[in-house]
Write a structure and sequence with these properties.
Elements lengths: L2 E4 L7 E6 L4 E2 L3 H15 L5 E8 L2 E9 L4 E8 L2 E5 L5 H7 L14 E4 L3 E6 L14 H6 L5 E5 L5 E3 L13 H13 L9 E5 L7 E10 L2 E10 L10
Parallel strand pairs: 2-4, 9-10, 11-12
Antiparallel strand pairs: 1-2, 2-3, 4-5, 5-6, 6-14, 7-8, 8-9, 10-11, 12-13, 13-14
């Protein structure tokens, strides 16, 4: 869903910009993980591990890349999460309807909340009908913006199976690091997971491309910081002639 453009390094790190086919993004998880592995391969190939900083606008993202025989494992520090809003239950019916489910499908033990580690996600807990969920209104992006959200991330609290789409609902993502980070922060903040507990998030099942994202929340310098870990494999290459 995204492309990332990497610019020559500076003292602060490698400046990058991220785009979808529709817009430029302030942050995205998988392009950042992938870029770190590419930089490791191209510029630090003699090292098994590499510490890499990416500069996204004025934000610096620190990554640790480790090379294995056939892939790279990259850990990204997404920084301190922002808890932007807790959505009032009076909106639950409209939120459920916009996602093609009844309000009874929402799990009342879990709040609907907007959390960001770079992109603000509306986190919607569904106890059932995750398979039926889809964006079912044409102005979905405008609708969730009233809660200060950019995108939605629906999840089953028992299994941590998750789904997300672009706001037109035409493209579903198989793995979304920028959403997994906020979900980890949400689970720890609300007492469902503990600090430093490894959280395994599943996605892509309904596209027959199942994925697992691992994350955790640690206390560093009196602040909570969110970490996401993923494997990167190279399966293609090309050249751009300018």
């Amino acid at each position: 869903m995204e492309s990332i453009f990497v610019f020559p390094s500076t003292e602060a790190g490698y400046p990058v910009r991220i785009f979808t086919v529709e817009e430029e993004l302030e942050f995205a998880g998988h392009p950042v993980l992938g870029a770190a592995a590419v930089i490791h391969k191209c510029f630090y190939s003699s090292q098994k591990t590499a510490d890499i900083n990416l500069m996204l606008d004025k934000r610096r993202i620190h990554l640790q890349s480790q090379f294995f025989s056939d892939h790279y494992n990259v850990i990204m520090n997404q920084g301190t999460p922002e808890f932007l809003s807790v959505v009032s239950p009076k909106y639950y019916t409209d939120i459920a309807s916009s996602l093609n489910v009844d309000s009874s499908a929402l799990n009342d033990d879990y709040p609907v909340e907007v959390v960001s580690t770079g992109l603000p996600y509306l986190l919607v807990p569904l106890k059932e009908n995750l398979d039926k969920a889809k964006i079912s209104i044409s102005n979905f992006g405008e609708f969730i913006s009233q809660f200060r959200a950019k995108f939605v991330y629906v999840f089953n609290p028992e299994t941590l199976q998750c789904r997300t789409w672009n706001n037109s609902g035409t493209i579903e993502d198989i793995a979304t690091g920028s959403a997994a980070g906020p979900l980890c922060a949400y689970l720890v903040k609300n007492g469902f997971k503990k600090s430093n507990e490894l959280i395994s998030i599943s996605q892509g099942q309904y596209l027959n491309r199942p994925s697992i994202i691992e994350g955790w929340v640690s206390n560093i310098n009196m602040k909570q910081e969110v970490f996401i870990k993923g494997d990167v494999s190279f399966f293609g290459s090309g050249e751009i002639n300018i």
